[in-house]
Every structure is written in structure tokens, then in C-alpha cells.
């Protein structure tokens, strides 16, 4: 009976995590799309300084992680020092900035789809640089994702979607997305290296270190000279309070979403988190298409299904590998 009650609690916690991740990041995606396409105020101006979103997100997450460390951290020793995140902070500043800037040139569904193809540069680098050999099913996953993204990119975007973009330019938009993935790959590798050197580093330590350096780099970039874009972004927010409110909620969604991701990983593992975030991306495309006026053709929906079939198959392969490892450990 006790085990049954524990199982029910576990299901409720998982449902709570799914609801938290989906609601926080889907709503954040809608706000991101709104800020990149909407015309604010009677003058009908666009918010052109999308990189400012990264700075605002860094500041909010920095404060949030500091509060969480003070409230929940039991030990202050053994974790990675804040200065060790300086190099990962550079790529974590440049990468997301490119991803957000891409929204000036391609639609939000196209950006989500392009950024879902993270396995492609990882496998290319692994094969070409490190000589890693992958299994046939892994190549099938990559083929489905690469084929879906490239076919989607080559298809004609609806005139309604193009009219909402600030500067329609598909090659530049997709190029920025793939550069974002490349920088993300370096960021993840650096974080793994730091975790290996400092095993007692908590998720809040990583969040604090990354956002501290992100805040420093973005302040230098946006406010480091008299006519920096940060001053224009602040002025725009003063003139259009609606935009400032959207930016604040956007940042809070990101901080809350990270909380749910950390909770999911700690309770259910990274595979469960990958599954939740992957399905969230698919739902984000559906929501964007229905609510934000980004209609997709039948063929484009076919590409979306193709990409997420590849991602789902990849998750299944990871799950099967995990099951095999657990079976090997049992006799021990």
C-alpha cells in the first residue's frame, strides 16, 4: 500500500514537472515571437534589440539562482568557483543571441525546428574530429531530422508569415540557428568538464556562474560605448511599457522553467527531461501555428512530423540503452 502511494505521488510530481516546463516555455516562446514581430504603440515601432532579451534573462536568472542558493544550498564548499564559467559564459552569450536574432529573418516554428537538430553538428564533429562510430539507428535519426529541417527550409513560407518578419532572409536565419547550435555544443562540453573537475557543483552553482558571466559580457556589449544598443532598448521600453512588461514575464518564464527542469532531472533523470522538452517544442510549433498566425502547409507539417519522429526515435534508443545498463547492474 505504501509503495502504491509512493507511485501515485511520483506520477503527480512528474505531471507537475511536465505542466511547469510546458507552460513556462510555451508561453515564453509566444512572448519571444510577440517581441520579435509585434509593432508597439501608435508609432508602430518594432523592438529591434532582441539581444537585450538575453541580458534581461541573465539578470533575472542570476538573482533567482542567488536566492535559491541562499535558501536551499546546504554546503558552500566543493562546488566550482564562479570564475571557472568565464569561457562557457562567452559561448552561452553569443549562441542564444544568434538564436533570438534569427527571429528577424525566419518564423518562430522554423527557428524551433532548426534548433531541434542539435544532434547533426554533434554527430558531424564526433565523426570528423574524434573518429566516433555511430550505430545505424542513430544515423536514421539524424537523417530524419536533417531531411525534415532542410526540406522545411526549402519550402515556400506563407505570405502572412513573411509579412510579420522584420527582415525576411531564410538563409541568414537558418545560418544563425546552426551557429547557435555550434556554440551550445561548446557550452555543454565546457559545463561537463567543469562538473567532472568539481563533482559537488549544484545546478544552482552552474546557473549562477553562467548568468553572472552572461550579465557581464552583455552589459559590456550593450552599454560599453555611448551609442550602445542597450541604451536604445531601455529607451524603447520607457516609451512602450507594454514591451517592458512582456520582457519581464519572458524572463520570469525562463527562470521558472529552469526550476522545473532541475526538479525533473533530479527526480526522474535527464532522459525524462529530454522527452518532456522535445514534446514541448512540438507543442510550441502547434500553438504558434494556431494562435500566432503562422500557418503551415500540409507538406510543412509533414516535415515537422519527420523531425520529431527522428527525435522520438532517438529518445527511444536512449531509453533502451538505459534499460540494458540497468539489467547488467542487477546481477552485481
TrEMBL record:
Localization, UniProt: Endoplasmic reticulum membrane
At the top level, the lineage of the source is Eukaryota
Q: Cellular component GO terms, alphabetically?
A: endoplasmic reticulum membrane; Golgi membrane
Which residue ranges does UniProt annotate as crossing the membrane? 12-31, 52-69, 81-100, 136-155, 247-265
One annotated GO molecular function is: antiporter activity
Membrane topology value? Multi-pass membrane protein
Keywords on record:
Antiport, Endoplasmic reticulum, Membrane, Transmembrane, Transmembrane helix, Transport
Q: Which Pfam families match?
A: UAA
> Record's family?
Belongs to the nucleotide-sugar transporter family. UDP-galactose:UMP antiporter (TC 2.A.7.11) subfamily.
Q: Entry's PANTHER family?
A: SOLUTE CARRIER FAMILY 35 MEMBER B, SOLUTE CARRIER FAMILY 35 MEMBER B1
User: What name does the UniProt record give this protein?
Assistant: UDP-galactose/UDP-glucose transporter 3
Amino acid at each position: 500500500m505504501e509503495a502504491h502511494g509512493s507511485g501515485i505521488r511520483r506520477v503527480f510530481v512528474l505531471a507537475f514537472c511536465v505542466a511547469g516546463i510546458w507552460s513556462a516555455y510555451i508561453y515564453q516562446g509566444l512572448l519571444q515571437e510577440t517581441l520579435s514581430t509585434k509593432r508597439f504603440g501608435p508609432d508602430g515601432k518594432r523592438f529591434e534589440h532582441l539581444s537585450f532579451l538575453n541580458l534581461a534573462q541573465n539578470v533575472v536568472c542570476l538573482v533567482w539562482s542567488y536566492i535559491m542558493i541562499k535558501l536551499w544550498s546546504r554546503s558552500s564548499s566543493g562546488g566550482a568557483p564562479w570564475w571557472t564559467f568565464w569561457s562557457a559564459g562567452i559561448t552561452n552569450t553569443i549562441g542564444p543571441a544568434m538564436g533570438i536574432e534569427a527571429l528577424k529573418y525566419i518564423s518562430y516554428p522554423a527557428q524551433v525546428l532548426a534548433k531541434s537538430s542539435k544532434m547533426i553538428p554533434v554527430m558531424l564533429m564526433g565523426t570528423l574530429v574524434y573518429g566516433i562510430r555511430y550505430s545505424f539507428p542513430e544515423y536514421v535519426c539524424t537523417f530524419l531530422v536533417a531531411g525534415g529541417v532542410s526540406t522545411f527550409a526549402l519550402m515556400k513560407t506563407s505570405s502572412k508569415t513573411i509579412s510579420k518578419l522584420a527582415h525576411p532572409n531564410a538563409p541568414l536565419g537558418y545560418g544563425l540557428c546552426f551557429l547557435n547550435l555550434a556554440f551550445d555544443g561548446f557550452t555543454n562540453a565546457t559545463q561537463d568538464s567543469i562538473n567532472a573537475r568539481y563533482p559537488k557543483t549544484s545546478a544552482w552553482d552552474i546557473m549562477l556562474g553562467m548568468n553572472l558571466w552572461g550579465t557581464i559580457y552583455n552589459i559590456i556589449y550593450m552599454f560599453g560605448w555611448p551609442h550602445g544598443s542597450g541604451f536604445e532598448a531601455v529607451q524603447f521600453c520607457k516609451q512602450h511599457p507594454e514591451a517592458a512588461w512582456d520582457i519581464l514575464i519572458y524572463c520570469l518564464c525562463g527562470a521558472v522553467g529552469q526550476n522545473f527542469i532541475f526538479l525533473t532531472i533530479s527526480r526522474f533523470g535527464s532522459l525524462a527531461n529530454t522527452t518532456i522538452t522535445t514534446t514541448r517544442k512540438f507543442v510550441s510549433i502547434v500553438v504558434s501555428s494556431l494562435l500566432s498566425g503562422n500557418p503551415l502547409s500540409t507538406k510543412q507539417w509533414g516535415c515537422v512530423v519527420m523531425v520529431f519522429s527522428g527525435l522520438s526515435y532517438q529518445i527511444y534508443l536512449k531509453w533502451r540503452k538505459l534499460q540494458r545498463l540497468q539489467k547488467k547492474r542487477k546481477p552485481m
